[in-house]
Amino acid sequence: MLILMATLTRRLQILIEERRFAQLEHLARERDTTVAALVREALDQVYAQQPMSPRAAAERFLAREPIDVGTWYDAKRDIEDGMDRGA
Predict the structure, then answer these.
(1) Most distant CA pair in the chain: distance in Å?
(2) Distant-in-sequence, close-in-space partners of 75: CB < 8 Å, separation ≥ 6
(3) What 3-state class would DSSP assign to 64?
């Protein structure tokens, strides 16, 4: 995919482990491209897909690990504390 530098207007900075970066550098050399181009390609492949159907979204949500949110009394206390602080 050819991307003109003039169309690249936003900068993204991420921190990754040295091992991951080394893998990206190796792959970029093999493909005669840049690490940045590999990252853009990966973003396109993963996030530019068609929107998820409501059913698929629900199944994905329900398959997640449960999150411990505490008891109703804890939640009520947090809400009341927030109201007392004017939050």
Answers:
(1) 60
(2) 69
(3) coil
Q: How far is CA 51 from CA 21, 37, 44, 46, 58, in A?
A: 30, 24, 13, 11, 13
Read off the tokens for 35: 């690490």
Structure tokens at 5: 């530098």
pTM, two decimal places: 0.50
Query: pLDDT tens for residues 17-71?
Result: 999 999 999 999 999 999 999 999 998 888 877 777 889 889 988 998 887 878 9
Rg (CA), the chain: 22
Distances (CA, A) of 7 to 10, 13, 35, 50, 63: 9, 18, 18, 23, 39
Give domain limits for the chain.
Answer: 18-66
Q: Which secondary-structure segment (H or E) carries 30? A: helix 18-31
Alpha-carbon dihedral angle through residues 16, 20, 23, 27, given to the nearest 10 degrees:
-50
